[in-house]
Amino acid sequence: xxxxxxxxxxxxxxxxxxxxxxxxxxxxxxxxxxxxxxxxxxxxxxxxxxxxxxxxxxxxxxxxxxxxxxxxxxxxxxxxxxxxxxxxxxxxxxxxxxxxxxxxxxxxxxxxxxxxxxxxxxxxxxxxxxxxxxx
Length: 135
Hints:
The protein is α+β, with helices and mostly antiparallel strands. The protein is built from three helices and four strands, in the order H-H-H-E-E-E-E.
């Protein structure tokens, strides 16, 4: 009888470990998915901000914003049009920053990354332009 009880305890412990592992993976995946949804919303705000800036100044060139600058750092230094958009990546570390790729008179590129993928875009690095998102 004692051996049977030990066996049951071992089985329950193994099942508990598996359940906790699956639960922790689900929480990790769901949080990445939620952050990706926030990123998509942020990117729409960046597009709106850039369109407004272009409408007022006739260019996407922003003084003090160079390739490799984080979008939030760049926007906070600018006119009220851009300053009102306080946008930073939910993780803000490693690949997970919105980075100015390039700016010129009539074109811009903002680099970003998705963790889990959302809206038909798999996880990975992307570029936002005035035409939309590309790899």
